[in-house]
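Protein record

Derive tokens from sequence
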Amino acid sequence: AKEALFKALPAVDGWFWTDAELVHDARHAPRFRFHGTLAAPLAREGLQVAVSLSHSGGFVSTVVIVTRGPSP
């Protein structure tokens, strides 16, 4: 999931893999929690990240979509 996130994000210098944490929300759906160097630019730019995970047999697929949130 982090590799898909890395490919979907615009260039953000200086972030580490540990700045993105894959967690589950109250309905057990996957989502990212951001920390450190990655959190500030995403918030400043109003970027929202959606993640979907799927698996079948020995295969896993991940889709990450990065969108700009509505203007305040």
